[in-house]
Specification:
This protein is an alpha+beta fold and 387 residues long. The strands form four sheets. Strands 1, 2, 4, 5, 7 and 8 form a six-stranded mixed sheet that branches. The longest helix is centred in the C-terminal third of the chain and has 22 residues.
């Protein structure tokens, strides 16, 4: 398969969000049908219409062994798997530009055969297309999932696995997107605004505040620990903050995480909230805190950290310029200086994944899992690399 096409098939793994005034939502539904062919040989190669147990996607989060105490029956497992399958499809289908421009909406139907020997989808075909590139997009995502390692539980008939053909109706629907979303905590968070949230006095004032207020944990002063802690913070309408997520990329530990939180909370009231429709609204911003010890014996380690960050930025720039091989080389150099930097490992792993180097990508992804115990991209890691 050509390299360009392989890269396209795995493009869905990139983590991107697009916040425009208009976005497009794909609504999906799933149903099954099949064509019965009478078996003529000892090896049953028929494609069945009816099976005692119908196939369903094998998604690891829906395996009972991963959830002690979950006494799930077959229907619960199936519902869990189908729900997650819908979510993966919806998250990775891109509404084609031609279809958007021409206001094309409707359902595309794709058929496939689930092979009992491999659990993979074969014979992907368009049964119904609505045009505008929608059919090609539906096929692209399904093929990408199959290439990425999504397997199916085979259909069973009379206690034996059999081939079953499925029809996957995928509905494309244009819809005006709201300029906000509601978080699990009930907060209305705006993703579109007329004025962005900002620190009073601008970026220079924010940098001065961090330099003057951030304390390196005293008990770790001679440890020479260096690293970045990134937080997602909601800027409230009154200028206060609420931290919703924290990533300790260098596994600095609880004392450093607490100090990062303390710093952010200390900035309460120093923020100018975002505005939409002439009113203050809640919005999320990323805040990154860098820890470097001033202990005299840490100078060399601090220098290596600074060099790694410069190389990482150069790698990001090269990737934006569509030079992935050169970007990977920069990250190789950066990781040689900071071998346990999980942010750098993730960048290199994702770029290798998009270059169809799954083995190299999984080494980086699994190393992040080993270092942190949990990843912020766990669903992707499990899909690509397994347990």
């Amino acid at each position: 398969m050509p390299e360009k096409k392989r890269a396209e098939l795995l493009q869905y793994l990139r983590t991107e969000s697009f916040f425009d005034m208009k976005s497009y939502i794909v609504t999906l539904s799933l149903c099954f049908f099949s064509l019965f062919i009478t078996a003529q040989t000892a090896i049953d190669t028929s494609i069945y219409d009816v099976a005692d147990v119908m196939p369903f996607p094998l998604l690891k989060n829906c395996i009972p062994e991963r959830h002690p105490g979950w006494n799930a029956d077959a229907d619960s497992i199936r519902q869990c798997a189908e729900s997650q399958f819908f979510s993966i499809l919806a998250a990775n289908i891109r509404y084609p530009e031609e279809a958007r421009t021409n206001n094309i909406q409707g359902s595309v139907v794709v058929s496939c055969v689930v092979e009992p020997s491999t659990g993979r989808m074969t014979n992907l075909k368009l049964l119904k297309d609505i045009g505008g590139g929608c059919g090609a997009e539906a096929l692209r995502v399904l093929r990408a999932l199959d290439e990425a390692g999504l397997h199916w539980q085979a259909g069973m008939l009379s206690g034996k696995p059999v081939r079953v053909r499925h029809a996957l109706p995928i509905r494309f629907r244009l819809q005006e997107a709201l300029p906000y979303y509601v978080s699990v905590d009930g907060d209305t968070i705006y993703t579109v605004f007329e004025k962005s949230p900002n620190f009073k006095g601008g970026v220079d004032s924010l940098m001065k505040f961090v330099l003057n207020q951030l304390d390196y944990p005293v008990s770790w002063d001679d440890s020479c620990k260096t690293g970045i802690i990134e937080m997602a913070a909601i800027i409230q309408t009154d200028g206060t903050l609420k931290v919703t997520n924290q990533l300790d990329f260098n596994n600095l530990g609880m004392d450093f995480q607490f100090e990062a939180l303390r710093l952010v909370r200390k900035s309460a009231g120093m923020w100018i909230p975002a505005e939409y429709g002439g009113k203050a609204v809640k919005a999320t911003i990323p805040l990154r805190v860098v820890f470097k010890s001033t202990y005299q014996g840490c100078a060399n380690i601090n220098t290596k950290f600074d060099q790694a960050m410069i190389l990482a930025d150069e790698g990001a720039t090269l990737l934006e310029q569509e030079k992935p091989e050169e970007a990977i080389q920069k990250w190789n150099e950066a990781i040689a200086l900071q071998p346990n930097n999980c942010e750098l490992l993730y960048y290199r792993g994702t770029t290798n994944m998009n270059q169809n180097r799954r083995e190299e990508a999984c080494k980086d992804y699994n190393r992040v899992k080993e270092l942190l115990g949990v990843t912020w991209f766990e669903e992707v890691r499990r899909l690509v690399c397994g347990f």
